Amino acid sequence: MAEVRRKGIQDQNVLKAMEELPRHLFLDTAFAEKAYEDQALPIGNEQTISQPYTVAFMTEALQIKKRDKVLEIGTGSGYQAAILSLLGARVFTVERQEALYLKTKELLKSLGFGMIRVFLRDGHKGLAEFAPFDKIIVTAGASEVPDALLKQLKIGGQLVIPVGVKDQEMILITKKSASEYQQEKLGAFRFVPFLSGIHSEKR
Q1: How do residues 15-25 score in pLDDT, each as one tens digit?
Q2: pLDDT digits (tens, 9 = 90+) for 85-138
Q3: CA distance 190 to 165
Q4: Which of 20, 27, 25, 71 is nearest to 48 (CA)?
């Protein structure tokens, strides 16, 4: 966590949550020894767990408050969702990879995060039936911002999303009215691509 602090993360609630939550629990044992290094690591299904700094950066940008209703696009390992939950958010998270969805849903439950609601869905469509959301976080690189996610934000709500094809620019979007949005560029990052549809390994 010293590296995360050194890189400029100042939100003490975010830092405390990340210090309390053992990252190695969200990784295969083969990568456990690297769990506390500031790097992204593979979690299967061609997906990764974001480096701690990226998790902290995106979480800090959203300024999570207790009882915030938060939609996460890209459940992955479940680590980001668990951090949001520790901050007091009501977390709804969607995953398109069925194998990851099943594995992570059980993991979160076993770790005491059964209150996190996990869905097997196409993230581009969000979760319209539970909208609007105070905050939305997208943990994959999008070629553009999905209109459905903008519509599912509360007025005054915020969306953080990495936008770009090879490398991404982190964008923080604030919904000012039903049709007006404010954008702020936060810096360059690199994520796995934000794909559409649901991927099942069943034939």
Answers
A1: 999 999 999 99
A2: 999 999 999 999 999 999 999 999 999 999 999 999 999 999 999 999 999 999
A3: 9
A4: 27
Residue 68 maps to a domain: yes
Q: What per-residue confidence (pLDDT) applies to 202? A: 61
* Phi-psi region at 196: left, alpha or beta (left = phi > 0; alpha = psi -120 to 50): beta
Positive/negative CA dihedral, 95, 100, 106, 108? negative
DSSP strand pairing (90-95 vs 69-73): parallel
- Reply yes or no on whether 179 is catalytic: no
> Residue 36 maps to which CATH number?
3.40.50.150
Return the DSSP state at 193.
B
How many angstroms separate the CA atoms of 106 and 18, rounded?
A: 21
The two tokens of residue 49 are: 């767990």
Q: Distance between CA 202 and CA 106 in Å, rounded?
A: 19
Domains: count for the chain: 1
Identify the active-site residue in 50, 85, 110, 200.
Answer: 50
152-170 tens-digit pLDDT = 999 999 999 999 988 899 9
